[in-house]
Every structure is written in C-alpha cells, then in structure tokens.
Amino acid sequence: MENSQLKKAGLKITHPRVKILTILENSDKRHWSAEDVFKELMLSGEDVGIATVYRVLTQFESAGIVTRHNFSDGHSVFELDHGEHHDHMVDLDSGEVVEFMNDEIEKIQHAIADEHGYDLVDHSLVLYVKKKS
Amino acid sequence: MENSQLKKAGLKITHPRVKILTILENSDKRHWSAEDVFKELMLSGEDVGIATVYRVLTQFESAGIVTRHNFSDGHSVFELDHGEHHDHMVDLDSGEVVEFMNDEIEKIQHAIADEHGYDLVDHSLVLYVKKKS
DNA sequence: ATGAATGCAAAAACTTTGCATGACG
DNA sequence: CGTCATGCAAAGTTTTTGCATTCAT
Predict the structure, then answer these.
(1) What is the pLDDT of residue B72?
(2) What is the pLDDT of residues B13-30, one digit of tens each?
(3) A129, B118: Cβ pair inside 8 Å?
(4) What's the pTM value of the predicted model, to 2 decimals?
(5) Residue B15 CA to C17 C1' — how many Å?
(6) Which chain B positions have a beta carbon within 8 Å of A102's beta carbon?
(7) Measured CA distances, A133 to A17, A126, A129, B45, B117 (Å)
C-alpha cells in the first residue's frame, strides 16, 4: 500500500502524504493540479492546507512518485509517474489529452541540446490538434 | 515605419504603442518579457505603466505582430513574429533562450498526429537545458 | 523527546482589471 | 468632441515561505 511507497522514498508516514497519494492512485483522473488535489481533500473532509499540498506534491516529484507538467497557462499539473516518459497531444475542440511517446524525437532533442553545448535536463512537447475532417 | 504597421492592425497610433514597437524592432534582443520592455521604456525616460505594456503586448499578439511564449517558470516572453517557425531551448541557469528548428522533429510531429486521427494545428516544444560541465 | 511536518497567513512573482483622466482621430 | 487608451493602484492567480504548533518515531 501507500506506506511502503512513502518509506521507500524516505518520507515520514504522515496523514497528508498518505491521503494525497491515495487520491492520486484511486482515481481515473490522470492530471491533477494542486487545487484539484486540495478540493478532493476537502470533499473527503480532510483538513489539509494548500501549502502542504504543494509541499507534498513537490516532495513526490523529487521522489519520482509524480511528474510535474507546467502547462502554458501558467499552472502546473501532476500525474503519477509510471516510469514511462510521454508527451501530450491536446484536442483543441474537446480539450481531450492524449499521451504519446516517440523515441526518435527524444533522441533528436538530446542531439540538438548537445550540438549547442548543453545537457538536456527536461523538455515540454505539446501538440495542439483537431480531429481530421 | 511603425505607424503603418499599427494602422494595418487597426490600432490607434498612441505613444506607448509606437514606443514599444520601436523597441522590439530596434534591438538585437529577440525575447522580451513584459518586465524587460517596461525597463527599457524607463531607461528611455518614457512614462508608461506596466499595465499598459501588458495590454499593448497582448494587442500585438492578437494582431499577429508578436508571438507569445509561455515558459514553464510561469512568465511569458514576446518576440516579433517573423513568420518563420522555430522552437526554443531555455538555459535553466542563466535564463538565456536559444532558438532552433529541426525538420525531422516537425515531420514526426505531423506523422504522430496523423496516426492518432488528428490534424496538427500547432505545437509547443521547449527544451530545458544546462551548460555542459 | 526531538527533529520533521503541518496549518495558517503573509509574501512573492506575474498578470489583469476598475476607474478617473487624458489623448487620438 | 466622443471614444478609446492610459496610468495608477488595487485585486487576481498560482506558488512559496516564515513561524509557532503538532506529530511521527
């Protein structure tokens, strides 16, 4: 269960951390903003501050439990890290998000950074699409 | 000059708009945050409020004069729209922005959208990098 | 017990908005 | 002249931080 995951990450088993991890794991929802998580906690009657939500999600990110995406409207979303990296495709009409992964693109990105004298630390690739007509 | 561009965009010829467009056009700097533009105005002794800078840049965006990029540290940069597409690489230490363009990546993106039954409308690719050590 | 974690409120950083004044056409 | 644009300050958003208190081990 959640406790072992937290222990493995070197995090103390606290109420907020267990609760937040449980929420992330027991939902179909994949992408959570801090606010989303906070509201879900409220609904469950949990008394956790928004500051703690941010702190815990950031710790989870450091621990590799979640991945943080900074979407372009300037707010972050978090999703459980399944170990497989992927990028996102957003349907401009429906708002639907599709995940995809392409080794070739990943490879080229590293090459490009390298050519410019940099190490690639992270990247963000989002395709904005519409259903074929 | 600037006036005709503004007229073509249906924007009244006002002092702040002319000044800001002039700054963008007469500089080697490509990427401007609102704050950057504001500081440049101050240096020129212009008395323009930061709110106006944001308003004008947003109008320029609507008019297709500039492109807005939302970087993931939660602030926007604007650049003159030259019509040629390119992607960005951001140095996480210095904040420096490098432009690049890779046909192969562009091609693959179209293929991916296509495979999923979509048309690619737009995309955003940002590489976050650090100088090689 | 003791150091880490939490909640609260306040601060920070960036951007938008309300409103009275001033400028453009 | 009638709008539209501007400046200022105040409010909004999202996220972080300081600090006293509470909790896990």
Answers:
(1) 66
(2) 999 999 999 999 999 999
(3) yes
(4) 0.80
(5) 22
(6) 108, 112
(7) 46, 21, 12, 53, 9
